[in-house]
């Protein structure tokens, strides 16, 4: 009994905070499950005809909306059962012991109350576990497990969401004025349109606006501060992007963050660009200009090179030399295949 007492009192549910470790459904916290167990223990003692606890609140917190367990009540019951006192019958003690034993099991799996919260608010934790709990296949024949084994910095659910956003864009939407089209691209990437903040602090005015910053890279928050350190040729040695990623990323796109990373090295196989080397992340999609008709058409392709969307925008697009250099950067690799296919038809 003493060892059981120590186990239960060591449980994080018995710490000072009574806030459930999970803030939003469908997550079911250990404290919620424990409340259900104690409810059954209360009902069992009632049916047995034994002496009742002073009140039902001896088992559960009166704050039913939080479904939390009140530590002081269970401590009191624990002391009573441990000593065999309190005047309760054997049936009540058995019910309470079952409740406490269940509590010790649940506490084994319960997260500590000190677990770090996401900078994007409740429900948007950017850790690897939250990012990897998705469907088995992410499209294009590459499974989530395959992608994570190669690129463990990938925020998989965010990648799926941003890829689906890109695929939802119709050609007519992507064939309007470039300013409007670029706004849609930022949305599809999970990025805010920020132009009045300093460079490196979340400014996205350059995103998809030159030959190089064309990758919608969706990464877990724990890799956002990774530095290049010479991994990608032609990129700054430090290339510190973390602060800007955290400011500019739209939380509703999913756990993790996004940046329009540099495509230099994307023509190699495997890709040797910033997404895949600096952040060890797959991309949601990449913008590639088609090498025909004056580079007026672009395609959006996913991690496997599969086309998601296309458009022929108007207005003040990146210059022709930028668009051509963009294709030259992808040439020979998987990301150029869709653009090559369009060019072959013209």
UniProtKB/TrEMBL annotation:
<feature type="compositionally biased region" description="Polar residues">
    <location>
        <begin position="57"/>
        <end position="69"/>
    </location>
</feature>
<feature type="region of interest" description="Disordered">
    <location>
        <begin position="42"/>
        <end position="89"/>
    </location>
</feature>
<feature type="region of interest" description="Disordered">
    <location>
        <begin position="118"/>
        <end position="146"/>
    </location>
</feature>
<protein>
    <submittedName>
        <fullName>Uncharacterized protein</fullName>
    </submittedName>
</protein>
């Amino acid at each position: 009994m003493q060892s059981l007492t120590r186990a239960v009192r060591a449980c994080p549910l018995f710490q000072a905070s009574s806030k459930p470790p999970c803030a939003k459904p469908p997550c079911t916290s250990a404290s919620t499950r424990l409340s259900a167990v104690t409810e059954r223990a209360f009902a069992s003692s009632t049916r047995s005809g034994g002496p009742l606890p002073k009140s039902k609140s001896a088992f559960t917190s009166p704050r039913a909306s939080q479904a939390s367990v009140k530590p002081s009540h269970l401590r009191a019951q624990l002391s009573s059962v441990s000593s065999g006192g309190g005047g309760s019958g054997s049936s009540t003690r058995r019910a309470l012991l079952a409740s406490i034993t269940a509590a010790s099991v649940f506490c084994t799996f319960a997260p500590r109350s000190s677990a770090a919260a996401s900078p994007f608010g409740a429900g948007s934790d950017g850790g690897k576990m939250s990012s990897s709990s998705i469907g088995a296949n992410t499209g294009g024949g590459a499974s989530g497990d395959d992608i994570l084994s190669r690129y463990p910095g990938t925020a998989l659910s965010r990648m799926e969401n941003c890829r689906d956003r890109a695929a939802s864009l119709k050609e007519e939407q992507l064939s309007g004025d470039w300013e409007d089209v670029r706004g849609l691209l930022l949305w599809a990437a999970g990025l805010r349109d920020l132009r009045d903040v300093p460079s490196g602090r979340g400014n996205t005015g350059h995103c998809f606006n030159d030959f190089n910053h064309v990758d919608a890279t969706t990464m877990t928050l724990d890799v956002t501060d990774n530095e290049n350190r010479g991994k990608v040729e032609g990129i700054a040695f430090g290339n510190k992007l973390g602060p800007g990623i955290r400011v500019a990323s739209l939380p509703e796109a999913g756990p993790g963050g996004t940046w329009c990373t540099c495509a230099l090295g994307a023509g190699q196989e495997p890709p040797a660009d910033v997404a895949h080397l600096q952040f060890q992340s797959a991309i949601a999609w990449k913008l590639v200009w088609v090498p025909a008709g004056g580079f007026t058409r672009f395609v959006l392709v996913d991690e496997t090179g599969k086309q998601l969307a296309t458009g022929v925008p108007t207005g003040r697009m990146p210059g022709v030399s930028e668009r051509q250099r963009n294709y030259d950067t992808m040439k020979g690799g998987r990301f150029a295949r869709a653009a090559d296919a369009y060019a072959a038809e013209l």
